[in-house]
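Why do we care about 3D structure at all? Because function follows from shape, and shape follows, mostly, from sequence. That is the central idea of this module. The next example makes it concrete: a single protein chain, its amino acid sequence, and then its structure expressed as tokens.
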Amino acid sequence: MSTNERVLQQTLHSLYSDHRGWLQNWLRRKLGCGEQAADLVQDTFFRLLSLSRTDLAALQTPRAYLTTTATRLMIDRARRQKIERAYLEALALTQVDNFAISPEDHLEVIETLTLIAAMLESMPDKPRQAFMLSRLENLTYPEISQMLGVSVSMVKQYIARAMVHCHHIFYGEDA
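And the structure:
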């Protein structure tokens, strides 16, 4: 193990031992559940593994960083649970009695829906609205232009931007 790796490991260990208990108590108060708090503590510190030694050493207020990271993880988890509930409700309405979805298929659908939701949320407002009206509501470009108060050519540009945005997320910027 190199010196840099050893320093990084010591820094992470120090952060974990100094702040884990405090973060878990903070999360337990926020969530009202010790098990969920423990899971989020682990997820929060797992995120620290992606930081470089320089970034870790530069943390002036580790608790602020940890609470921000944990809050973002709580938001992601709540968003995912909302998507899962909506999916399960839709599935319950359409499911035939003799058809059952496997846990693996269920997880794959939830992960796909979560990715789609994140993709849509990361788009600018107008392109997202145009894209969703076109794809989900099956509205024509003239109908969308009326709803958004823009020209038909602008709707085409919005949808093109949205499709390019999705392509970049799936295939990367260089594709």
